[in-house]
Amino acid sequence: MTLTISGLKVAVGDREILRGVDLDLQPGRVHGLAGESGSGKTMTGLAVLGLLPHGAKATGRITLGERDLLGMSAKELNKIRGGEVAMVFQDPATSMHPMLTIGRQLTEHMRHHLGLGRKEARARAIELLGQVRIPGAASAIDRYPHQFSGGMRQRIAIAIALACSPKVLIADEPTTALDVTVQAGVLRLLRGLCDDLGLAVLLVTHDLGVMSAVADEVSVMKEGLVVETGPRGRVLRDPEHPYTRALLDSLPGEKA
Amino acid sequence: MTDPTAVTERATLLSVDDLVVEHRTPGRPLVRAVAGASLSVAEGEVVGLVGESGCGKSTLARAVCGLNPVTSGSITFGGHPVTPLGLRRRNPALSGIQMVFQDPYSSLNPRRRVGAQIADGLRTGRDTTSSPADLLERVGLPRDFAGRHPHEFSGGQRQRIAIARALAARPSLLIGDEPISALDASAQAQVARLMRDLAVSSGAGLLFISHDLSVVRLIADRIAVMYLGKIVEVGRTEEVWNDPRHPYTRALLGAIPAPDGAGVLPAELPGDVPDPAAPPPGCRFHPRCPVAMDVCREREPDFGPVACWLHEPA
């Protein structure tokens, strides 16, 4: 299913945080959203899920298939959130409940959204843990988040997001808190899931290296606007907008 | 073990020899966070210490500052042995070591003005001529920030204030323990360069600890790579970056995705870092090493600059 954001504006009081954002997510494609902090990347992701902070007002259109998410009631949105559209956050240490087993956190919304019974949900949870390559899934399911390393926790967070077979996955800096070696594994996993399940992925990251590794399309944001959008190779090799070029030039890594 | 890649023309400032630091927690197995690491920093030299989280690099830095008791081995700074910080006044010879911590949100006192906190450093360094405003200027902040409180600043600005406070004590060795990892990507390279410039221009050495090789590469003269409590490779920055020899260093470098738009997924290093309470026998890296041989499972490569049986010195 396609998710289209058009003319999205978000304002808190008189301050406009997003000033007309257009983005297009296609199934089986990773759309990378870059920009420095404060440019509105995270806000865009949150707007899709109706998770904007208190007092923020969103206008414009966010359509999932035929439906407009912005016009939905809280009740309708609740069905979509965690169901058809799921999210993975930056810090797996804080996005999971520390006092519930990962099995409980994996099955809770499956039972809510899909109406599965306890046993069915548990079987699916073990299957999901295997899918994100958690070793010993059948016993891992009864452990608590702190018993896993950061990389494992982020894999579990991805499994939780995948539990209800979403069509769209929003990943907000999913590897920023991880070591590079662990990041490599999570990126491979995300790319593989996108290809195998036909997920439409919005990958929010400030790391243009990460972007280059997994994104098909890249959009660059600055001060609440998308300043450049295009295929990965074109945007990163031959940027049109001076801001994209400045971002690339500020990188510590190799210069071509 | 002496450090064979040390720069010989310059006097050694800090030397860490076969350092072992253990953490004891009642009811838990003993954890050897640093398991025989050797490292040196010369005057005016910038050494980058890199490794994954949990490899012991912060414990090593804390031991150098006297914040962690040493189990065995030695740390010498300017000819004086480094002793753990106690309740009494620190040996003045050791106040030449100053540290910049990871999180500027918790390392600055929220209830005191930043000027007063920098003045503490000036007193430690017995500097009667500089003012806190001078220090703020050196780290690129306006002079009138001295009267403000830490909450009025962004993460990058706070870290600059923490650097100003450390520099105020006129250190001959500055230690940065992941000083940039809590900052925005756009501020990281700037703050790292600032630390280098300030340390080198004052003739001090800098031990810069980070998990981010791509930033360390920008500022370090030498790089030391740490894995599970040991230094596995030391060398000049260009050599380590362009021609990494230890398989672990190769894996670390190979995992950094290049922003070249080619869509190449970075290589994955299989497995997790083993539990430091129960390190594998032989070479600590052998369970994850793509080129492990029989000898690697049996004997630990206890030599440098590359602690790998493929690179045994003749």
TrEMBL record, chain A:
Keyword Chaperone recorded: no
Classification via CDD domains: ABC_NikE_OppD_transporters (cd03257)
Subcellular location: Cell membrane
Annotated ABC transporter domain residues: 3-248
Pfam families on file: ABC_tran (PF00005), oligo_HPY (PF08352)
InterPro entries the UniProt entry points to: AAA+_ATPase (IPR003593), ABC_Ni/Peptide_Import (IPR050388), ABC_transporter-like_ATP-bd (IPR003439), ABC_transporter-like_CS (IPR017871), Oligopep_ABC_C (IPR013563), P-loop_NTPase (IPR027417)
GO CC list: plasma membrane
Alphabetical GO biological process terms: peptide transport
Record Gene3D superfamilies: P-loop containing nucleotide triphosphate hydrolases
Domain of life assignment: Bacteria
Keywords noted in UniProt: ATP-binding, Cell membrane, Membrane, Nucleotide-binding, Transport
Signal sequence segment: none
SMART domains listed in its UniProt record: AAA
Similarity comment: Belongs to the ABC transporter superfamily.
UniProt name for this protein: ABC-type dipeptide/oligopeptide/nickel transport system ATPase component
TrEMBL record, chain B:
Gene Ontology process terms (BP): peptide transport; transmembrane transport
InterPro entries: AAA+_ATPase, ABC_transp_ATP-bind, ABC_transporter-like_ATP-bd, ABC_transporter-like_CS, Oligopep_ABC_C, P-loop_NTPase
Pfam families tied to this protein: ABC_tran, oligo_HPY
Gene Ontology molecular functions: ATP binding; ATP hydrolysis activity
Database matches in SMART domains: AAA
Keywords on record: ATP-binding, Nucleotide-binding, Transport
This protein's record includes keyword ATP-binding: yes
Domain ABC transporter: 14-253
Signal sequence, renumbered to the chain: none
CDD domains: ABC_NikE_OppD_transporters (cd03257)
Family label: Belongs to the ABC transporter superfamily.
Name under which the protein is recorded: Peptide/nickel transport system ATP-binding protein
Species: Streptosporangium saharense
